[in-house]
Amino acid sequence: MRFVIGFVRQTWAGFSVLLALTAVLGVLYPAAVWGVSRLASGSAEGSPVTDAAGCVVGSRWIGVDPQVPDGAADPYFHNRVVGSAADEDAFAPGDPAAAAPTNLGPSSETLAAFIDARRARIAERDGVSPDLVPVDAVTGSGSSIDPHISPEYAAIQVDRVARENGMTDERVAALVAEHTDGRTLGFLGQERVNVLELNVALGLRAPDCTTGG
């Protein structure tokens, strides 16, 4: 009889612990994480960026270079290299889904040749001396989809963007300043410009209207 009573008590104790842990870890904890993700962070749903019509243009965390056909007007700011950093064609708009860093080191002559070619093309595009093209303009990030560029890279594009949009350099420079994020916590990292959000402010529109409802 004692054995039966002890077995029942132990079984009930174990079942009670199971119910308690299920409630805490299976319900309360996931609900708390879900709530924090919605209240304390804007990235839980991918941080979509919408244009003036409410259409999703992209994510503020994924850098996609604006696609400009050869010979067409080029009214937007360009991102960093998207795609393999060792790909000579990575200067052109890339597919973020196929992005991959390079395994070529700083002593690679192949990588150096690609960087020199990109520097010359960017300098020609923006009408500046190759010496003024910053390093982030000709190299990709570790993920190859960095959404930010340096203020220096944005600065050399201001004149072209202003001219193609019929705006003053001062107005475009002000937009760049509005979309420049400072160092994290005031001392971590560097100042950076979110290219997608800046281009949306210039009038970039989604090719296909897919609202982010």
UniProtKB/TrEMBL annotation:
Location(s), subcellular: Cell membrane
GO CC annotation: plasma membrane
Pfam families registered for this protein in UniProt: KdpC
Keyword Transmembrane set for record: yes
InterPro entries: KdpC (IPR003820)
Keyword tags: ATP-binding, Cell membrane, Ion transport, Membrane, Nucleotide-binding, Potassium, Potassium transport, Transmembrane, Transmembrane helix, Transport
Recorded superkingdom: Bacteria
Entry annotated with the keyword Cell membrane: yes
Record GO terms (molecular function): ATP binding; P-type potassium transmembrane transporter activity
Membrane topology summary: Single-pass membrane protein
Assembly: The system is composed of three essential subunits: KdpA, KdpB and KdpC.
PANTHER family per record: POTASSIUM-TRANSPORTING ATPASE C CHAIN, POTASSIUM-TRANSPORTING ATPASE KDPC SUBUNIT
Family: Belongs to the KdpC family.
Function per UniProt: Part of the high-affinity ATP-driven potassium transport (or Kdp) system, which catalyzes the hydrolysis of ATP coupled with the electrogenic transport of potassium into the cytoplasm. This subunit acts as a catalytic chaperone that increases the ATP-binding affinity of the ATP-hydrolyzing subunit KdpB by the formation of a transient KdpB/KdpC/ATP ternary complex.
Name the record gives this protein: Potassium-transporting ATPase KdpC subunit
Organism for this UniProt entry: Antrihabitans stalagmiti
Lineage: Bacteria, Bacillati, Actinomycetota, Actinomycetes, Mycobacteriales
